Amino acid sequence: MLVEEINVRCCIVGGGPAGMMLGFLLARAGVEVLVLEKHADFLRDFRGDTVHPSTLEMLYELGVLDDLLKRPHQKLQRLALQIGDSTVRVADFSHLPTRAKFIAFMPQWDFLDFLAEHGRAYPEFHLRMQTEAVDLLQEEGRVVGVRARSPKGELIVRSDLVVGTDGRHSTVRQKAGLKIIDQGAPMDVLWMRISREKNDPEQSLGRIDRGRILVTINRDEYWQCAFVIPKGTAEQIKARGIENFREELGRLLPHLRGRLHELTSWDDISLLTVKVDRLETWYKPGLICIGDAAHAMSPIGGVGINLAVQDAVAAANILAAPLAAGAPPVSVLERVQRRREFPTRVTQRMQVLAQNRIVSRVLAADKPLSVPSILKLMQRWPMLQRIPARAIGLGVRPEHVKTPEMRRPHRNAVAS
Ligand SMILES: Cc1cc2nc3c(=O)[nH]c(=O)nc-3n(C[C@H](O)[C@H](O)[C@H](O)COP(=O)(O)OP(=O)(O)OC[C@H]3O[C@@H](n4cnc5c(N)ncnc54)[C@H](O)[C@@H]3O)c2cc1C
Questions:
Q1: How far apart are alpha carbons 253 and 200 in whole angstroms?
Q2: What is the Cα gyration radius of the chain?
């Protein structure tokens, strides 16, 4: 097997939202980066699809927002929930102090392709697909690179900094021996797609009924459906048979009943295990983790991508200048954690509260659900819908790009 050895200033492990955004920003600031992504492409279904107003604002600051919005997407300006038979509005993004006053629903692979395309416009940006980091190189207590595998053979990457952006099952954080604080999650998600027809409603919708939570996301040609189940019950559901499962879905989605035969077997349905956790310390000499690798997020609020992107912006702001000079000292890595730990803690706290107070209760309910008083109040005074819009759309401590662009893009890729 071929062994290749390369040197790079910064090696980013994982081409998700955190890794691709950080790679793009560091390359734009003139720092040589290599992003390793273990899959051959970005086409995977388990990813969330939401690009939030604070991320859109940041793309505006980078001058690439119009480019992103040329790609197929749906705009969600008001968020509604169906509880039992009532539809209630829960968030109104139209008053946010941002350019784009909506959530853009865009398949995540399109968003990642977009970041890759913009990153590739800089000579300092390198991306290796189908390259999986399997171990860290460590010398005298310091991380000095990674060992990776690709179809061509083994790759040894030596770098001044390794950034772990390899998601909630991070190899990097495991190999670094960083301590994880698990906060638990009472649910898992069954993920499936059902075809969409022209006369179907436009809006993506969350549906809550006794014992059931279902989210249907409009992906133009099909509905991406997320069916929330109590943690660890997937096998019981499977044991009751696919026919039984289709009937259950049919009760929640009467207008899609005629298409549920598309779910022919359990192969058409993926189980996504939900985790909420956080690293006690996000770094060690020569290494730092950000995004889900530092703090796995629950799907509640659909804020994980946004938080991962915000981490990347903060990390680039803090790391770009020190990296240009060499290996950043631990005090600089600590600044990244200090900057991002507060928004992470607050967001996870809200997610865990929602999991325990709302999700667990709904999943355990055997009576029809009524609309909670707080939501009734929001229908009477729509101004109140701006509060959840701010929490979801902007989050805590939104970041702004402070890294300079060291040189103009060298290719036409951005214009295409
Ligand atoms: C069911 C579910 C639904 C969700 N829905 C939403 C939503 O609608 N909106 C939202 O904002 N968030 C959602 N989230 C959360 C969101 O997916 C994550 O918070 C977000 O993707 C984190 O981004 P990341 O870049 O840190 O990690 P990831 O998106 O997990 O990316 C990690 C990348 O690293 C790669 N990788 C892993 N290991 C290696 C390795 N060893 N070597 C090289 N590459 C590697 C992976 O292939 C992947 O591309 C959801 C989560 C779940 C579980």
A1: 12
A2: 22
d(CA 211, CA 218): 23
Dist CA 92 CA 386 (whole Å)? 5
Q: How far is the CA of 65 from the centre of ligand 1 (A)?
A: 22
Distance CA 250, CA 264 (A): 14
CA 165, 316, 345, 211 dihedral sign is negative
Nearest residue to 37 via CA among 144, 105, 110, 113 = 113
Q: Which ligand 1 atom is nearest residue 112's CA?
A: 49
Q: How confident is the model at residue 413 (pLDDT cuts 50, 70, 90)?
A: very low
Q: Over the range 138-174, which residues count as b (16 or more CB within 10 Å of their CB) and which as e?
A: beeeebbbbbbbbeeeebebebbbbbbbbbbebbbbe
Q: Which residue owns the Cα nearest ligand 1 atom 45?
A: 14
Name which residue sits closest to atom 38 of ligand 1, judged by CA.
166
Q: Is it the case that residue 289 has pLDDT exceeding 90?
A: yes
Q: Which residues have any ligand 1 atom within 6 Å of their CB?
A: 13-19, 36-39, 47-50, 132-133, 165-167, 171, 189, 272, 274, 291-293, 297, 299, 302-306, 308
Q: Are 93 and 105 in contact (CB under 8 A)?
A: no
Report whether pLDDT(308) > 90. Answer: yes
Closest to 147 (Cα-Cα) out of 157, 139, 138, 162: 157
User: What are the tens digits of pLDDT across the range 6-31?
Assistant: 999 999 999 999 999 999 999 999 99
Looking at per-residue confidence, does 121 or 219 come out higher? 121
Q: Whose CA is closest to atom 15 on ligand 1?
A: 304
* CA 122 / ligand 1 centre spacing (Å): 25
From the CA of 215, how far away is ligand 1's center (Å)?
A: 19
Average pLDDT over residues 196-208: 81
Tokens 């994980």 sit at which residue? 304
